[in-house]
Design goal:
Elements lengths: L4 H9 L9 H23 L13 H11 L5 H17 L4 H8 L8 E2 L4 E2 L1 H13 L5 H16 L3 H5 L6 E4 L2 E6 L12 E4 L5 H18 L19 H5 L1
Antiparallel strand pairs: 1-2, 3-4, 4-5
Length: 244
């Protein structure tokens, strides 16, 4: 590649979003990516990152970038940077941002969010503690706490959460990641994305997976839905079921 590989990659990536994102969004993403490119180029010149080539950027490079940005901007701005950066890097088959989130969970915003007000960390821990005490054979409670704990640990929207597939759960050396296929804007501007399960929620998630295995075994069923509707075959649990 040339002298400015990041800019070259931006010019290759952005046209692929035409027809999937609005012109205004593409323009905004372009400005943000060019700002990120300038920062990576500066960090490369200073010898703080290994490369400014999006195809080769590593999780460690992302960590350096995040540390640099957090000196001057809010955590919410850093998260916006990462949300657009992960999409472009994944286009070039580079999952460095995902690996960064799994490897360095303490290095980015740890606020747990739900729709509306933020959920205090003490309450989050109380939920995880309660989940650890539930009998794995108590399906009704395991399903309820499985939904809540995974929502906290990933930030999935309600629709994304209830329409997850078991086949899209991937265990890595750092933990779990799950592919959200049914996203906001599905079929138009929305894109499927891999989301890591926060390490704090790993134990609860693994316990839910065991409860799911036991419950499906008792029912003599095999379902793809991560949160399967036990009373009928196929599909996903209802909106009411996931909200209870």
């Amino acid at each position: 590649m040339g002298r400015y590989p990041f800019t070259e990659c931006i010019n290759e990536y952005l046209p692929t979003e035409v027809g999937h994102l609005s012109a205004e969004t593409i323009s905004t993403n372009g400005r943000r990516l060019r700002q990120i490119a300038t920062i990576f180029n500066q960090l490369k010149v200073e010898g703080k990152v290994s490369t400014d080539n999006p195809r080769k950027i590593t999780a460690q490079d992302i960590d350096v970038f995040v540390g640099y940005r957090r000196q001057t901007v809010k955590a919410s701005t850093v998260n916006k940077d990462l949300s657009i950066l992960i999409k472009m890097l994944m286009y070039f088959d580079n999952d460095a941002v995902l690996k960064f989130k799994i490897k360095y969970p303490a290095h980015y915003s740890k606020r747990y969010k739900k729709r509306g007000a933020s959920l205090e960390e003490e309450k989050v821990q109380a939920i995880f503690d309660r989940a650890s005490k539930i009998n794995v054979g108590n399906w009704e409670l395991m399903e309820a706490y499985g939904l809540v704990c995974l929502s906290i640990s990933t930030g999935f929207r309600p629709k994304e959460l209830r329409m997850l597939s078991f086949r899209n759960v991937n265990k890595t050396e750092h933990g779990y990641e799950i592919l959200a296929e049914h996203v906001k804007g599905e079929g138009t501007y929305g894109n499927a994305r891999w989301v890591p399960v926060h390490p704090d929620g790993t134990a609860a998630f693994e316990k839910y997976l065991e409860a799911r295995r036991i419950r499906l075994g008792r029912a003599g069923k095999s379902e793809d839905a991560l949160f399967p509707p036990i009373k009928h075959n196929g599909g996903y649990i209802s909106t009411g079921g996931s909200a209870r």
